[in-house]
Write a structure and sequence with these properties.
mainly alpha; about 40 residues; 1 helix
Length: about 40
């Protein structure tokens, strides 16, 4: 039980650190997709 709690805490810390990076990558991907879609016209 304790290992699960420690692992969950570690995962939440990693997610907290990487949330900004994931948001940035998602925005970048959306911008690239939108640009390629718009350039198709």
């Amino acid at each position: 039980m304790r290992q699960i709690k420690d692992g969950y805490r570690g995962a939440s810390v990693l997610l907290g650190l990487n949330a900004d990076l994931l948001l940035f990558l998602a925005a970048l991907a959306v911008a690239l997709i939108a640009a390629s879609y718009l350039s198709g016209f």
